[in-house]
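Repro case for the chain-ordering regression, as requested:
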Amino acid sequence: MYVEPGIHLMQGDEAIVEGSLIAGCRFFAGYPITPATEIAERMSRRMPQVGGVFMQMEDELASILAIIGASWAGKKAMTATSGPGYSLMQEGLGYAVLTETPIVITDVQRGGPSTGLVTLPSQGDVMQARWGSHGDYGIIALAPSSAQDMFDLVIRAFNLSEEYRNPVVILADEVIAHVREPVKVPPLEEIKIVERRKPSVPPEEYIPYLPDPGEWVAPMPAFGEGYNMLVESVMHDEFGHRIGTDHAAAERTIKRVYYKIEKNVEKIAMYETELMEDAEIAVVSYGSTARTSLRAVREARKLGIKAGILRLITLWPFYDKIIEDIASQVKAIVVPEMNMGKIVREVERAAKGNAEVMSLPKVGGVLHHPDEVLSVIKKAAR
Amino acid sequence: MATVRVSQIAVSDKLCKGCYLCIWACPWNVLEISEERNWRGVKKPIATKIENCRACRLCEYYCPDFAIQVIVDEEEEKKLLEVEERYEKPWLRRIEKRNEIVSRGVWWLES
Amino acid sequence: MIPESEFENVLAKKYMRTEIMPHAFCPGCGLGIIERIILMAFEELGWDEWEKTVFVSGIGCSGWVPLYFRRDAAHTLHGRALAFATALKASRPELNVIVVMGDGDSMGIGGNHLIHAARRNIGITAIIATNMLYSLTGGQMAPTTPEGARTQTTPYGSIEPNFDLMELLKAAGATYLARWTTYHFMQAKNSLKKAVKHKGFAAIEILFQCPTYAGRYILNKPDPRDMLQWFKENSVPLTVAKKKDPEELKGKILVGEFLHRTDRVEYTEKLKELEKRAKGG
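-- result from build under test --
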């Protein structure tokens, strides 16, 4: 049923499919788009084998609504797309946020704007992932750097989405999606999987959008279980009823969908550091850029420059504290990105002027060469 | 002469919006617009000629607001109260529960 | 005697969220009659059917219809109700999925989802509430606005012909089709009962009176009673229409059961078949 434990040579797009099936994903809806098509292709083959449903929808607008529908039918559900499709999905993303629906969206980033660089990588959707849909909300976005990450992070993404009843975005890019690498699949019993919490009270006592004291989200029943859910896209109160001009109820709803993510950043945030103990120059990087950055940092060490790397795995919610800590330790932070400089703004904000922040943008659909990163590290060390 | 005797045609003060589709629908001119406005400002229809009513219920069927009901006898009155007790009342209690929790202040609004 | 101050009709007490009523529709709005058609159908289908029924709706006045039912309901995005419903049905084929959409919702912004749901022949019952314009936003032209009609966005008269939903869905592959008006509540209820039991994509178009906008702008009948009278006088049953020539039928509303096909296999049944093949069984 699932991929055997052990080491497999897998494409990133394949690894994410196998990971999601193990995480419990039983519904996939998508629309073909380069470079995420392989995910849909493999899903169409694998999903029925595990008793799930694969649907090729008529467009991305339908794809995201379909996975929200499947989630309310009680299934864990995912879609995969790239920039243009992700833009279309923003309306559905907002719906999932306000109705607190756990879904996972994989955005295999390609160069934009518009149809853009169809087959080439980019990290241009980073800010869209945070702010793409209208209104105020919290979102979780994870950035894989390898095929192994695709496997591990999709499981983490499903777990987070169930725990916080929120959409989780996996911000992969073309390089990670198409790279073929060894992926280690651990034995099933070693993989932590979070299942959906169901209400324990009878339907007449259940208040759909009012969490128990100290919790951030209420348990979530599926459709057809007698709880008479109201999945309301209009601003609603604790019952899901439209509230019109009840400002206090609107404030309660908006603040909860915002804070449930932002205030739990310590629990959600993941990162990796290497050579940071005595570093004077830090490279802050994520996604495939982190791979070239690591090489550059190692080269810098050979030259006697005390460089280290922080790889952000969780991009959103942004973990200010780790940047604050690093800024107080190093004299400069280098931020290479495959865009015109996006996460660097967050780094600059969180560094609070304690270290010089140097942006290293790269557009045109090509990875940074390690030498490019190295030359900026050298400049920072001078 | 009507063969049924209708005991009451109930028109809700809460729900009636005064569109008078019931009056349009009634083939026996049972209903008339009342002269006085109720607390919602609606001149709701009243059954001035209830003796003409044959319980065809067209007024009920065409009422978009679930505001009117022909109550033929005590049997129907009893059934109505049973439905209320069994299907409606259990769901109304949670409103008080929510209000109580919310009035104490919810934790995510603090700080 | 039952006190009248807080009175609700027995159907409302049994099936509806009376705590949020009266509903937000204008006085005389036909959407309330559509709600009643749905509830009357389920009163006859039985509580067991009701318990496995879920509702999905889009945006617009019509999107509010199922929100007053004490049942699982999703008020989705403008035009996207069918996408949500498709996944719901595919994941839980045992549920009756009823989608309530308006004309702009289903044929305007959601036109693509509508034809694809019909093409898949997925077992959804779509109730398409047609009032001939966009009413929640204040009376603008919709895909169903008759040519020549004046609305807020067609002050010189509409130059666009309107959709014939029945023909559209017939071509797209739907397997049960009916059109009624709120005047024909009993026929609509019977069609709905059939549609719920039907295996395949079923669509029922119900023309309803919007006295506030369609009544004032298109028909010059701001009174709901006049609109229902107009529905009564201007609708022609299909059986009668067959005997008339097309000239006579201009401007009339054809009502009746347009299609009932049983030769196409329903989508979720094909899904089950596919799963068997994938598992090598």
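Ordering looks correct now. The first strand of chain A starts at residue 6 and ends at 11.
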